[in-house]
Amino acid sequence: MDFEKPTIKVGILTISDTRTPSASNIDSIDSSGQNLIKLINDSNVIESAKVVQYDCVTDDYDQIQAKMSEWCSERKVDVLLSTGGTGFSSRDVTPEATLGLVQKLTPGISQAIMNESLKLTPMAMLSRAVSGIYEKTLIINLPGSTKASKECLYVVARAIPHAVSLIKDDEEISKQFHKQLDFTAINESRVPECVTKIACRHRESQFPKISMKSALNILKEHAVLQYTENNKIKYPTVCIFSTGDELENISGYIRDTNSVMIKQILEQDHYKGQVFNFGIVRDNWDDLCKRFEEAFNNADIIVTSGGVSMGEKDLIKPVLKEHFKSKIHFGRVNMKPGMPTTFVTLFFKDKKKYIFCLPGNPVSAGVCTHLFLLPYLRSVSGKKIIIHSLKAKLTHSINDLDIRPEYRRALLKYENGELYVSCLTNYQQSSRLLSFVGSNCLLHLPSLSNEANIKSNTIMDVTLIKSIKNAYIAPILKEMNLFIEIFKKQTISGNIKKEQSLLFSCIKDVLHLMTENIFVAKTENIPTDSAMGYVLYLPVNSSENLPPFPASIKDGYAIKYINEDSWSQKSNIFNVVQVSVAGTVPACQKEIKEGECARISTGAPLPPGANCVVQVEDTAVISKSSDGKVELTIAILKEPKLFENIRSIGSDISVGQRLLDQKIVLGPFEIALLRSVGCDYVQVYKCPSIHIVPCNDNSAYAISHKLKNMLELADFKGNIFSHPLCKNLIKFSGLFESVFGYEDVIIICGSFYEFSNVVESHIHIRNDTRKISLGFGRMYYNEKKVVFLHIDTCDLDSIYNCVHLFILPFLRFTTGRKNIISSIKTKCNMTSHYLPSDKFEKAELYYENGDFNVTCYTMNRQSCLVNMPSSTNEFNTEVKEGKKTELDAIVTENSDSYFIYY
Q1: pLDDT at residue 481 above 70?
Q2: Lower Cβ count inside 10 Å, N or C end of the chain?
């Protein structure tokens, strides 16, 4: 979005008897309208536009016209896009309702949509869509199909801002529009020969391969902290976009997974600056110049994916170097995957801009986001530790090292005080998003030139990309004694009956009681792009092949290779007869015969007859066209191999293949995987709403605020409501009547006993030494059922303990999480003199020299609870021997140095 221009307000009106805006039923969800919203708000298909109104109405003339009139006459929208009701059916009355309202027709818009639609399908002639102007609003009818409405929107999207400016008589917008047209016209002639003359391009990259260490040092030099006038850290604004003629948002052969994935990786890392997704930019010199200029106007850091390799359409580096006169600090890094990664700086309107150009392959883009972009953003955010690096023991030997240092997707586990790492799959290709599923780290492998193989049990460096898999259960969770009282409501009298108290129960038993007996999980269907952090309810299988056609994995030439004789006895000269780029329609390609070749780009479909791809570095130009632009014949300098550099149909993902198992937490890579096969919606565990109700006194009100802050910091995805002080049963019953929903979770703070007549069952747990006091159970009122938890204490330590030992684990369970509480062994170098005995102590958890360590009595970052034992005798012995004390810790927050996410 361009923030120097007024926002164009858009309304989406879906006309259908069967579609609804609710996501509760996937069969009736308005997919066309929802997709238009995503195209405009997320992909910025219409420049400077935002959807501000959305509704669904039935196929009724009066309803359609009433809604259109309301939005237009009250100036709620500048553009009204209707979808549906444009066909030949008797119920299709959208064009009639529109014609009965508009004051001016806009036949050029309708004709443009029809012309382009007929190129795609002859069935477009059956559409009766119209467009026109009512008051100061442009109304455009679009088809009801998700695919057709998207295609039609693309036809008119670029003209809409200028149309709106004319309708509103906005001279400034009109001037800017014409300035952009002038900008395009002026710069068309500035495209350098290295782009216009394909035959003149370099056969090898001009940029040297630098080491990862050198690349990170360069980034470190440019990571400068900025401060606001109030001396607070100023977080840079980030703009992200993907490049490629072949990319589509959700339909088509190749979907844009990278822009959404990179944005979500930043969100997962809790980056505090503004992050904007500028969507897709075509591989066109002028479009790239315009989009970069738009990004420079609105962001400090620009992140692109694609267009940085050696292909015909790889224009990112030439555009930045030739047009914007930028400085390219590095253009290749000696690593796998992600070798073409590029870092650029330039001055735009006297302000310095930083550009990260990442490869287009989704795995490369994801790996390089973690290795380059995140460390840089952490640096400029003032964080001390910018790379989450740990050391772990390799569980198996590795013999297939690459000539480049490699960052392999792997699984890191924590078991009994040690970290172990293992590679889950050998399929590590940079196009294969499945290699991220089940992985949580990048395993650093050395170059083959340095080592022949790596033996098992070798200590390796890893970089975390998501939560550590935790298989350790601290003894404190199984052994600590708790006093438990069970209360049940008698069916006949309605009185509360106190049952026999239970002794010698532990936290593990309580969590079992809470999770197994009082909550029934609910599910919902939500858009895939909005599902980050949710837990998948059902497994997901692929409905298509990826790639859907044989595709090249290199920039080069597709040939028909006959390997009957030795290569030296054959002619190695090939005639270039066609071009295949990403986005080429496979059905339009000609068959390649012996002695012929097709210039081909990474990701492009392989022409029929071709059986291998020779990379461009292994070729030389023999003859060119008279103008020097086109290669006519090439020589192949190295004998190829059959099926070399080719991805076969379904080699990444095949139809019916299991993509994700149930109860997996959906992160950036899982969502990118689902997007890659066109999965729009997923069924997930629904997060319950939480109502915090203070009862009886003002101290309870203070507790409720502390509790709300703790839950919000824990990133719970459900709604959290804080209620006013409730002093009587009538008011509490009123909340049941009008506020609480079925299976909501109520957390009651303060004295609770006078409300006990609405309690069906109630269990109270306490341990005075450990500062634990918590109740939980069920409440019923007029057949409405809720789950409640009860805290009756003003002590902050007790609240903290109850939240992290019971409340948050319970809430994680309700949302489908497998791992509801994490515990680890830690080292503490404090003497017994400073160790309080037999209680929980808040501490700071950090990773250093291969161990997890804690510092007690810290006011900096309280990220864990450590278990203080009842005896100090053993500590005295260890201190005399110079040993660190080993303590069990329960993780309460993410740490800068190891980041565990639940």
Answers
A1: yes
A2: N
